[in-house]
């Protein structure tokens, strides 16, 4: 077996020097954490980043042990610096296609060859077309109670009924405030849900929402179609979460019958050699959860690569051992 050292001093198998062991697509918590472990395992890894993190509008992230309150951009900056220490390359750009030969084709014509692929492209939050929603998103119009409710605790809160998950979101928020108003908006609120909300101490503001009222760069209330303005200090909205999974569906990865990509517990898809991690396969995963998913995928990726390396070494060994010496 032809073994040599690469530019980072790592021992490499000559058969694979012209390809990357793993191409990671997406440089959020899942992709970076996977790249970190794979770099420490002395694998040849490149991470491709399109530069569109889902949590970019948020000023801080919460619930991540030792990083609680850190700006999301700061976490990514730390992660990029850490993977660089282990020789992991980071490329800025967008992947347009992956083919079944593990060729990763980027916009602009760059093509990378990989032995294995990890897709960690996340998702986008699809917001309702209500004036003020996009402007306040991630500021005082929030999504996850576990991520943001503590910072607006005991304040007058609104929950906008623009998604079926909004009822649960409103009930959950009562843990952080005694003053929560649910706005059914255009929802046909079931009688059982109406009873649960009322019994649990939430008020209902009937009528279609026309806009969020903002004054002095702060949310002041929610305006309804009849002209009423219900004063609120912060609002919550359950967005429609749309995974960036076109690369995976383009490969023919199995879904669960809806739109969710099916994987095993390590993130392995139905397509051999292709893993996925983070919000692209689990829309509800928080940052710390996505990082853990990246870690699990990295362990499995390295084990799979090791099996292939050993199989090739055994094959070469048998060929060498079986060779007839020249006379």
From TrEMBL:
It comes from the Bacteria. This is FAD dependent oxidoreductase. Keywords: Flavoprotein, Oxidoreductase. The keyword Oxidoreductase applies. InterPro entries: FAD/NAD-bd_sf, FAD/NAD-binding_dom, Ferredoxin-NADP_redctase_2. It catalyses: [thioredoxin]-dithiol + NADP(+) = [thioredoxin]-disulfide + NADPH + H(+). One of its GO terms (molecular function) is thioredoxin-disulfide reductase (NADPH) activity. The keyword Transmembrane helix does not apply. SUPFAM superfamilies: FAD/NAD(P)-binding domain. Residues 20-291 form the FAD/NAD(P)-binding domain.
